[in-house]
């Protein structure tokens, strides 16, 4: 969690904050998607996270992917922008957010993929017809849109 969110939580408590998240659909040479199994919810999602004040969308996704996977991504292209009712989330501690999501597709990357980190148990590549369960409910739409090979950019 970045300082902005901590600061705002001190002011508004658990009330709904608007945030912007950026995530990456990282595809390997076999066309599989990289997913991470989160420690906090024990479900599968994309690498990514919340934008910090002053960052661009690209800076956010590049930073978050490297922090979570140890991969450096190149030439991210817009996959989709997601908003609406599915973007509401309440955390176990009662904090509420409405998080607009900007999702990128990445086919070029370098680095040694780390398996475990502060936020994840593991990172694994999956074919579109062999996705794991459970998917993170707030990210299932992105992952399923990818699996169904939806025309991009997806705007919801």
UniProtKB/TrEMBL annotation:
Q: Which GO terms describe its molecular function?
A: hydrolase activity
Alphabetically sorted, this entry's keywords are:
Hydrolase
Ranges for domain Nudix hydrolase: 17-148
Keyword Cytoplasm: yes or no?
A: no
Which cofactor does this sequence's record say it needs? Mg(2+)
Q: Which Pfam families match?
A: NUDIX
Supply the InterPro entries for this chain: NUDIX_hydrolase-like_dom_sf, NUDIX_hydrolase_CS, NUDIX_hydrolase_dom
The protein's name = NUDIX domain-containing protein
Native organism is: Brevibacillus fluminis
The taxonomy runs: Bacteria, Bacillati, Bacillota, Bacilli, Bacillales
């Amino acid at each position: 969690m970045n300082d902005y969110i901590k600061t705002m939580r001190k002011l508004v408590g658990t009330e709904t904050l608007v945030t912007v998240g950026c995530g990456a659909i990282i595809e390997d040479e076999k066309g599989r998607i990289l997913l991470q199994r989160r420690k906090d919810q024990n479900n599968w999602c994309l690498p990514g996270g919340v934008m910090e004040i002053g960052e661009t969308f690209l800076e956010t996704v590049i930073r978050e992917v490297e922090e979570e996977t140890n991969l450096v991504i190149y030439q991210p292209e817009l996959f989709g922008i997601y908003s609406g009712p599915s973007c509401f989330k309440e955390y176990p501690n009662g904090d509420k957010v409405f998080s607009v999501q900007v999702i990128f597709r990445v086919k070029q990357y370098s680095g040694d993929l780390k398996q475990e980190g502060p936020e994840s148990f593991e990172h694994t590549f999956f074919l579109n017809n062999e996705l794991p369960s459970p998917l993170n409910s707030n990210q299932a739409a992105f992952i399923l849109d990818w699996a169904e090979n939806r025309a991009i950019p997806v705007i919801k």
